[in-house]
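Title: Comparing notes on inverse folding

I've been comparing how different people in this forum approach sequence design from structure. To keep things fair, I'm posting one structure and asking everyone to reply with a full sequence. Here's the target:
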């Protein structure tokens, strides 16, 4: 899916920008730690992180499926789970 929300810059690719985002979110690392790993300034790491975060927010309608209000048949027919 190409939306153009995250684009290659002169010095970093889209893959690197997403990798920076994943390092911050997935590993709970601070920008100071990530900037040393990727050899980028803290400002650059901050900018790439927020750009990818904004892009995920813009794609929320395509990525997140709203919950259905229906109850599964196995739950409806079970006395163990039906009240819940």
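Reply #1:
Here's my take.
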């Amino acid at each position: 899916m190409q939306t153009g929300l995250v684009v290659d810059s002169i010095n970093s690719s889209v893959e690197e920008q997403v990798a920076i985002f994943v390092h911050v979110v997935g590993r709970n690392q601070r920008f100071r730690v990530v900037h040393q790993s990727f050899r980028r300034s803290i400002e650059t790491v901050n900018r790439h992180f927020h750009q990818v975060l904004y892009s995920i927010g813009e794609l929320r309608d395509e990525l997140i499926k709203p919950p259905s209000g229906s109850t599964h048949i196995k739950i409806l027919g079970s006395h163990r789970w039906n009240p819940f």
